[in-house]
Amino acid sequence: MQANRQATFSFLFFLGSLLVSMVIVPEVLEVSGAKPSKLSQKDDKSVSVVSQNLEDLVLASINKRLLNDLMGASYTFLYMSAYFGRADIALPGFSKYFRQLSERELGNANFLMSYINKRGGYVEFRSIEAPSKQKWLDGLDAMYSALEIEKNLNDRILGLQRKASRHEDPHMTHIIEDRYVDPQVEIIKEISDHIANLSKMMGENYGLGEYLFDKEL
Q1: Count of alpha carbons within 13 Å of 122, Cβ hemisphere only?
Q2: Residue 105, burial from CB neighbour count under 10 angstroms (0-12, 13-18, 19+)
Q3: CB 69 within 8 A of CB 152
Q4: What local confidence, expressed as pLDDT, does residue 63 receive?
Q5: Interaxial angle between packed helices 206-216 and 139-166, expressed in degrees from 0 to 180 and rounded to the nearest 10
Q6: What is the dihedral of CA 50, 56, 59, 65, to 10 degrees?
Q7: Ligand-binding site membership of 55 (annotated)
């Protein structure tokens, strides 16, 4: 008899719990089914919580152009460093110089990625093509290639600066000018000086002049 009472009580308790859950669960589901946050709704490549006046067009210009070009430049300079370090080329000064340029552009890319995160944007990686040129006649020819790369980067930097200014983003404009514009002018001048000095050595004794120049790099 007592066992029947316990069984009846257990059944009634289960039935009551079921009825309560039918009332409460929909309310919980309604709460949990609230509209998703702006973070899950946004697909504009910016994190709304920390985004600070970061225009989508400016961010796209960074990801699709400047960031990819910086990574590509670093990749190319690294290859040039390996090329001039080969046993049949044996110009360690040029090899070291191009490795420094590779590290410089990689550092610029890393800084830019950190800045994008700080401003509440998303970093996008894109494919990097192999260097279009993989052989050079001599050190002078390689310096001309390096100058072209840096000038192309300068065009990208100035374009981003103009775009940031048009979209009234003074902080990004300042960062670009301070971190990229001025140093870019300096590196272009430096490479141009190397070209001028190597050009003076052109002639029958260029090989000896290049050897001595390599020692100074």
Answers
A1: 15
A2: buried
A3: yes
A4: 62
A5: 50
A6: 170
A7: no
Classify 46 in phi/psi space as left (phi over 0), alpha (psi -120 to 50) or beta. Answer: beta
pLDDT at 123: 83
More confident of the two residues 57 and 126: 126
Determine contact, residues 46/59, Cβ cutoff 8 Å: yes
Check the annotation: does 150 bind a ligand. Answer: yes
Q: What's the CATH fold of domain 56-216?
A: Ferritin (1.20.1260)
Structure token digits, residue 95: 């090899």
- In eight-state DSSP terms, residue 122 is -
Q: Rounded to whole angstroms, how far apart are CA atoms 91 and 214?
A: 6
The DSSP annotation for 83-149 comes to: HHTSTTT--HHHHHHHHHHHHHHHHHHHHHHHHHHHHTB-------PPPS----SSHHHHHHHHHHH
**Quick check: 204 pLDDT over 90?**
no
pLDDT bin (cut points 50, 70, 90) of residue 170 is confident
- In this structure, the dihedral spanned by the alpha carbons of residues 51, 57, 59 and 63, taken in order and rounded to 10 degrees, is 160
- Residue 66, token pair as written in the block: 């400047």
Distance of CA 169 to the CA centre of its chain: 19
Domain ranges in the chain are 2-34, 56-216
The pTM assigned to this predicted structure is: 0.75
- Which residue type is seen at 178? D
